[in-house]
Amino acid sequence: MDDETGASGAPEEAAPAAEDTKAGAADGAADGAAENADAAADDASKEAEGWAAQLQRMIDDIGRQAMPVIREVGAKAAELAAVAGEKAGPFAAKAAEKTAEIGAVVAARGHEMATDLRRADDDATEAEDTPKPDATDGPAGA
Prior knowledge:
It is a single chain. The protein is an all-alpha fold and 142 residues long. It is 82% helix and 0% strand.
């Protein structure tokens, strides 16, 4: 009997059984907390999916409602561009005519200036080729 009883007189097998019960209760509490956390995460995930779906529906609705407005704005922009092109065409033609006129005047003046410069250069060359009277010759007629 000495083998089966401890100092307290209780069987030694009773102590490990109590420890197993405490460990089992702690494991059960941990498992319950983990299940609660998983359930909360699943609930949060489902709620987030619901919000995302609702947001997507709102975006789709806005897109459908905005499409006619966007088309109208695009059409108006095209009309304005057409009017600007119609009004700019004659103005551009007038500007081209004036540019051609001014270009012809500038070209004529350029030709005149070139002719004058060549004439001045030819006159200077002729003046160098003409002998100059010598100062030692004295006055003519003396």
